[in-house]
Amino acid sequence: AGYTVDVANNGQEAIDAIGQKKYGMVLMDMRMPEVNGLEATEKIRTRLGKADLPIVALTANASREDIENCLSAGMNDYLSKPIRREKLVQTVAQWIVMKTPPVTSDTESLLQVRQEAKSIDTAAVTLDENRLSELALETSTVLMPEIITGFITECQGRVDKIMAADPISDLLVIEDEAHTIKSSSVLFGCLRLHQRAKLLEDVCKVGDRSTCISIRESIGAIATDSFNALWDVVHRLEEGTLTFDAE
Known about the structure:
Layout: H1 11-20, E1 26-29, H2 37-46, E2 55-59, H3 64-72, E3 77-80, H4 85-97, H5 101-123, H6 129-138, H7 144-164, H8 171-187, H9 191-205, H10 209-239
Parallel strand pairs: 1-2, 2-3
Helix pairs in contact: 1-2, 3-10, 5-9, 7-8, 7-10, 8-9, 9-10
C-alpha cells in the first residue's frame, strides 16, 4: 500500500523506536513479551509525550470491555484478529490521512483543550444565577419554575443518552447530544456543564474515543450538581424567597 513499516519484537522495543523516530501511526499488538500493548501505549502517551500519535490496537479479544480498555489506555482505534487485509489497509489509510495539515490543526487545538479542561472546570461556577435573571427578563418570571423544570427534564434525557451510547460505535450520537447540552445549558447558567459538554463535543468531532470515555464518566456528575442547583432555584422561586425583577 506504499507505507514503510518498522517491526518491534516486544513492547519495550516499540517504545524505544518511537522515542527515536517519528512515525505516522502505530499498530499495537496487545499481547507482547516484556511490555504488553496497554502498558506500551500508556508509556508512549505519558513518558514520550506522544499525545497525537495514532495508535491502533491489534487484539483477539473483541468484547466491549476489552475494547474500552484499549481506548482508555490511550489507543485511538482497534482491529480484531484475524485481521483482514482490506480492513487493515482501510484503517491505516484513515489514520494516516487524519495526520494531514487540516486535521492536524484540529488535533493540536484538541490537545490544548485537553490541557485546559481541568482548569476550565475548576474555574467555572456550577450555576450563574445572573444568566437565569436574564432569561426571566426575556421570557416570564412567573413561568421560570416551569421553564427550568422543562430544561432539567430535557437535559437529563440527553445526558442519559450520552451515558447509554457506545463510544466505540456511537460517537455521532454523543457528539449531537453534547452539542445540544452545550447550547442550552449556558442559557440556564450551568457553566461547568456547558464547558464539559463543549469538550465532549470537540473530542467526538475528531474521533478521539479514549478521551471521550473519560469525559463521559464525569459529565453525569456535573449534570447532577447543575440540576440540584437549579432545583434549589425553583424551590426558592415557589417559596417567594427569590425573585427576578426587571431593572
